[in-house]
User: What shape does this take?
Amino acid sequence: NAGVTQTPKFRILKIGQSMTLQCTQDMNHNYMYWYRQDPGMGLKLIYYSVGAGITDKGEVPNGYNVSRSTTEDFPLRLELAAPSQTSVYFCASSYVASGGKSYGYTFGSGTRLTVV
Amino acid sequence: KQEVTQIPAALSVPEGENLVLNCSFTDSAIYNLQWFRQDPGKGLTSLLLIQSSQREQTSGRLNASLDKSSGRSTLYIAASQPGDSATYLCAVKISSGNTPLVFGKGTRLSVIA
Assistant: This one.
């Protein structure tokens, strides 16, 4: 199994451009997440989804949008790129049982984005 | 608000040494705690997951303990090897369901041959 796959691995954007970071998982996990990681700052949650058609904001959602049309895919959209969005972006997934029991997270390998 | 702290931020040890990485959290009412490894320029690899009802988990040379009452977890690495060099991240889940993980900033470990 591939696990969580993110594309692209690297990208340079100009200020004001837009792009979509792709994330797909093949583990039939119901929960999916987008984090950003800045040097010395740890991982911050941008958005998450508890299932197809359901998304919610995390700690740092401004400047981003997400959608979850299928269980497998959870793309992250940047509409007007800004230098403050230069970061490494990680997608993750997990399985939460119907009774609420949560299992461990699986992370993708990340997308390194630079906005100039 | 739950906060996770990992001290030290960096650690350098000679090969073969046993070592302990520390993680502390401010709110003891957690659901589970997970340790990850991150190699430079790579994603996060899950090492161990401890549910709130458990005291420890073991995988090979790794042993993670959890003391909820004191808000602490430790990751013990036995007989360290240069291949163990990486950043180790601790993350806690506050409750079941849709609450996300809260991460510490990590400990960067260097094992010197």
